[in-house]
Amino acid sequence: KEKGRARSTSPSSSSSSEATSSEDESEVDRLVRGKVDQVVEVVVGQLVGAQVAALA
Hints:
Blueprint: H1 2-20, H2 22-55
Helix pairs in contact: 1-2
């Protein structure tokens, strides 16, 4: 439930910040998305590796 609340509040806060500085917001979004993608890849890789090792 807490995660849902955070997600529901983030769109409103991001839209208000975009109105003030859309260029800065877009740069931050790119950096955050890039880092998130890297973390997701690492975590997924570890999980898949653990599952393969467990199955093997």
